[in-house]
Every structure is written in C-alpha cells, then in structure tokens.
Amino acid sequence: MSTQxxxxxxxxxxxxxxxxxFDLIILGGGPAGLTAxxxxxxxxxxVVLIEKMILGGTVTSTFQIENYPGFPEGLSGxxxxxxxxxxxxxxxxxxxxxxxxxxxxxxxxxxxxxxxKAISAKAVIIATGTEASKMxxxxxxxxxxxxxxxxxxxxxxxxKDKNIAVLGGGNSAIEEALFLTRYAKKVFIIHRRxxxxxxxxxxxxxxxxxxxxFLWHSTLKEIKGKEKVGEIxxxxxxxxxxxKLQIDGVFVYIGSKPNSDLxxxxxxxxxxxxxxxxxSMQTSVPGIFAAGDIRVKHLRQIVTAAADGAIAAEAARExxxxxx
Length: 324
Ligand code: NAP
Prior knowledge:
The chain has six helices and 17 strands. By secondary structure, the chain is of the alpha/beta class.
C-alpha cells in the first residue's frame, strides 16, 4: 500500500492584509484536528487549520500502530497521518503554518493570535495535543540530541549494537523499547514501580524479548558522559541505593503534558492543565471546542482523538448555525 502524499495540501502563508472571517479555526493538525477538518469541510464550513510544525502530530513518530481499526497488519504513524492528510486535501483544506498564542472573543467571533497576527472565525476547535514530559534531572538538557532522546523512531537507528535505557512503563515506553530492540544490543526498561502501566499485550511481548531487561522500582538520578551519554546513575526506590550503568542512550517516555497554554486564561482546565469539555467537546466558553489528547478524558488514543474531532466539528457546525 503506498501512502505517500501525491500532492501537498493547500498551504497559505499568513499575510497582514488578508483577514477573512472563517466559520471555523482548527488549531492543531494531528488526528483530532484532521478529523475535525474532514467533518467540517464535508458540512461545507469555511475552515482553516493552523499547525505550528508538521501535520500528523505526535503520531508521526510512532513506528507501528496496531490498534487503529481497519488496518489488521498495522501501519506506521507516518502512513496513517499521510492517509488522513490525503483525505482532507481532497476537500481543499486551507492550512496556515504558525504558532497560535491566544484566543479572544470579540462580539460573536473569536480572534486567534498566530505569530502576532489575528485570524478570526465564528468558532474554534483546539486540538493542540500534548508534548513529552521531561525528567528534569542533571544531564538531561546537556545531552539532548547526544544520547538523550524522546523519539525512538527518529533516533533508534543510531544505536546499532549499543546499550540503551528507556525510562517509563506506559504504552509509549514499552512500544518504543520493543522497536529499539531492532538495533540495540540491550534495552534496559527503567520503571518506578514493579508493574507496567502498558497494555498487557505489549507488556507480554516485552517480557518475552531476550534483549529487554527490566529495572523495577528504579528511577534515573543523573545522566553522565563526555561528548555523549556514557553512564546513568540509578536509584532503587525501595532500598534508596544508587548504582551506575554504562549506557549509550536514554529514551524518555514518562508521559506528556497538554499544550494548553494558549487558553489557560480563557477556558476551564483541570489540575493538570487539560481542557474540560462536555460530551459534545464544548469547553467552558460557548463556541470554543476541544478535541483529542488536549482534553480531560479517560483514554488517549488515535481512535478516540479522531472520534473527538468528528464530534467537535459537528457541535461547531450546530453552534455556528444557531448564530445565524
Ligand atoms: P503514560 O501512559 O502516562 O505512562 C507514563 C509512564 O511513565 C508511566 O509508567 C509512569 O509511571 C511513568 N512516569 C511518569 N512520570 C515519571 C517520572 N517522573 N519518573 C519516572 N517515571 C515516570 O504515558 P505514555 O506511555 O506516553 O502514553 C500516553 C497516552 O497515549 C496513554 O493514554 C497511552 O495509553 C496512549 N498510547 C497508546 C499507545 C497504544 O495504544 N499503542 C501507544 C502510545 C501511547 P506509573 O505507571 O508509575 O505512573
């Protein structure tokens, strides 16, 4: 199956003199944003999607997706993202590249500041997702890109026959640790408890992999090296003892934090800064909707992000119709 984009989606740079009133602004081009765009465009809304980096979001750095329905053999995050883009491209989605910093309600419309310029619409869907959490330990920033990584798909091939540590016990950590065994000699999974949070199917696969070693109830205290990572300092959380391990790379998968700064003064957030919505993805401000990993929810998956996007687009359409 070829999933290469044959043509790129319509892309437009933001210019000062062009400020039309859109029906809907979608912030973020991951599965939630792209699905929202698909449904909104099919409802004939005048839509613009704003993305700061790459379409597809964090999904693009996932090596293999095995739980998105319709793909029994699985597919890569890049392939799935390209297919989603292809679908909205057929409907001529307008995309602007930029960093949205705030949303302000002005009368019956919303002004979104993107790189210092306002883009206006009758409704907004926030689908800005999450970003990887940092460990906040000595050596993390110093060796970032020189042995410390947050993306196994991007950096894994550099670690052929090397020893790697993966921090975390969730789906991301286990999935990416399994991916890294393609290259590495040994992969040490460092987890703060003695039970994985990851789905059982992944946990079983990791347990059965002869290249994977588990360091239970342990955490990282420091990353050391000269030019590159050479050693990590571990702490056993039961005995409180410190130990050292010679290692060539550290991959960090300890969860993520929501990209909700742009609305922290605007809509209701929970204690962890995720956006609170009702079942129709409506936030505390009528006309502003949220979809995908950015919102308070039970299960953060591509399939639930896509579902959120569809619901948010439909709710936005109803909201816009009532304005008229
Ligand atoms: P996650 O599920 O929140 O797991 C984070 C892991 O890091 C947990 O094991 C946690 O330990 C550990 N951790 C958190 N803070 C830590 C710290 N300061 N020091 C050491 N360890 C720390 O995050 P995720 O794995 O990135 O997944 C995010 C969401 O995406 C989840 O909903 C997940 O199911 C979903 N996802 C799904 C798939 C899939 O279905 N194939 C793949 C990737 C991600 P504790 O367990 O002790 O809390």
